[in-house]
Structure formats: C-alpha cells, structure tokens
Prior knowledge:
Layout: E1 7-11, H1 15-27, E2 32-36, H2 39-48, E3 56-59, H3 68-78, E4 83-88, H4 92-104, E5 108-114, H5 119-127, H6 132-140, H7 148-156, E6 160-169, E7 175-186, E8 190-192, H8 198-203, H9 207-227, E9 233-239, H10 248-259, E10 266-271, H11 279-291, E11 295-301, H12 307-313, E12 318-321, H13 323-326, H14 333-348, E13 352-355, H15 361-370, E14 374-375, H16 386-395
Parallel strand pairs: 1-2, 1-3, 3-4, 4-5, 7-9, 9-10, 10-11, 11-12, 12-13, 13-14
Antiparallel strand pairs: 6-7, 6-14, 7-8
Helix pairs in contact: 2-3, 9-10, 10-11
Amino acid sequence: MKTSELVFLVVEDDDFQRQTLVSMLGSLGVTRILEAADGKQALEVLHKQSTKPVDIVLCDLNMPTMDGMEFLRHLGNVRSNISIIVNSALDRALITSVGKMAQAYGLRLLGTVEKPVTLARLEGLILQYETAPLAAQRVANVPRSFTLEEILQGVMEKQFEPFFQPKIDFATRHFLGAEALARWIHPEHGVIAPYSFIPLLEQAGKIDELTFLMLEKAAATCRLLHDKGHALTMSVNLSLVSLTDTELASRIRQVAVNTGVDPHHITLEITESAAMTNIAPALENLARLRMHGFGLSIDDYGTGYSSMQQITRIPFSELKIDQSFVKDFTDNHSLRIVVESSIAMAHKLKIKSTAEGVETQKDWDTLKEMGCDTAQGYLIAKPMNLNSLLEFSAGYSA
C-alpha cells in the first residue's frame, strides 16, 4: 500500500510538536491525517471514523486526561489490528518498555522513537508497515481449544509431524542442522501450533507420547540426510516433566540405535516450561544421555525456572538465547547486555551459544561480532516440512 493511501492519527498534547509531525507526514506524501491532543480525544476520533479506518497511530506518552499507556491499552482492546509508533521525550528504556507493553496488548508496533523525531527516522518506521502484518500474524493467532482426548487421539494416529528450522554457523555460514518443532497436521483444522497442545500434555503427564513420536521422526530424518551426504545434527525438545522416569535415557538411546544415528548427531533441548521437582532422577537421566554422546541444550535460556541454577548442575553442551532477548536487542541497551553476557558465559563454560529469533541482517551482524556460535531464525528460514528441508539442504550454499 502506498503511503498516500494510508490514514494516520497523530496523538500529541503539544500543539507545536503535533503540527511538526503532521508537516513531516505531509512531506512524505501522506494526505489523510487525523489529530488528537490526548488519549481520550484519540479514542473519540477513532470511534467517529466511519469511512476508511486508521492504519497507523503516532502516540506520545506523557499527556493530560489520558496518557499514552492508558490509550494503548484501550486501543488494544478495540483495534488490535492497528499499527503504532511510540514517540516521547521520556527515558529511552521507558519508551522501549511501553513498546513491549503495546505488543502485549496485541498492537502492531512499528517502532519507538525519542523526541525530537527526525524525518528520516519517521520515514523508516512507516516503511515497516508493509511487514508488520506478517509479524503480527506470528503472535496474534488465537490458540484453538482441544481436549486431552482429542490430542492423544491425534498422537496415536501419528498426525503430528516435525517442522524443521535450520541452524547456521555464524563464522562459516555452514548449515549445521535443524530443530524439530512439533506441528499437529489436523485433518479438519490444518496446521496447529504447539501452544494448543503442549501445555495440556505436560499438565496431564502425557508429553512423552508426543516427545517420542517427534524423536523417532527427527532421527529418521537425520539418518536420511546423512545418507544424502549431509552430516547434520537434529535437535528435539525434551520437557523437564519427562525426566522423572529413570528409564527415559535408555528409551531415547534405543531410538538412536533403531534408526542407526550416532547420538552425537542428536541434541535434546531441555525446555523449562515446568519446574524441576524431582531433581535426582532428572539429573541421572541427563548425565546418562551425555555419557552416551547426546548433546544437551538449555532451551529458551533466561525465561524458565532457575536457568542460572540449571546451567551449573546439568552438563549442557549448548545454551540457546531466547528470541525474546534477541528481538530488537540491537536497539535496546538492556537486552544487548543480556545477550552479550549470555554468549560470554557460554564461552567461559566451554559450550556453544545459539541465538533464536534472528530476523534481520543487523541481528546477524551484531551477534556475529559478539562471538555467538549459531543462528536460528526467520532471516535464515522459517520452520519447514521434510520435503522443504531436503530442498534447503540440497540447495544451501555457504
């Protein structure tokens, strides 16, 4: 969509600054601009807008009557499909925090900017509009509700398939392997994402059924790729809930034996969606898995239960930095420190560091400069089915 076709709403209490923004938008070819002096007026303007709806809102934060944060909350409740640009003279960390808040309310955040807003910066943020809908779709899908019985029936009928997301070496750009992510290929509803079935399976203590189905299919894919000359590693998620069974390590090893895959080519990513309650059997399983050559990765580092404690007592071979830290970290000082510290800690522990959620060339360049070992994210490829992975591995060139 051309800039001239977009409808803007400028929410700013200072008359001079509001008119400056309006003038800037006009110079960029925008022809339809609405104005409001605070959040309350902005909601009234949106309510009265009966023709073409507003596409992008430029919102200040510190305003009388209704400040920007309250406005964004109301906006998320009534118009979650709208795009926003947050601009303010407040502290940069605070502005960034409000941007995250807006996303949590379901709004499409094009960016945050400190005052004074420059024309170049404003133009750059507006250019983000074309890609914003795709980004919103990744987080805004409402999970479909299924019963435990429906999910288990799907597992029994082997309706679940791994979708593979490639992992690339920062230094050499070599294709190292892939993470196998569970997807339910539902006969009526199509591809169902994990948040619609994983939590329920974990709560019911039935996650093992899915884990071994994914492990068997991922190991078979690993064997297939090796036979085609691609010595890749396959990563499979393993819930802490599963680790209470002291026979788990032996069962996992048997899957590798049955498929003819060396355990060194399988990495088990330990997810922390549940607390580790039975520590002794969990540590026994993990120690046995490492003894037999399996890789162990601490998944979504920093978002689960006592990650710092886990990394000191489990023989991990990889630390995965969660995408919530990687996204926007190049422009966020606090996130940048967290990411850089995680990479440095991994290196001091002599384990690999992997960054999830690498989506831009800037992300790649910064992470490479920090010494991160492996990249995973949309910049490289989205999760894909087996046929697409085979095409990717055949056509991938460093």
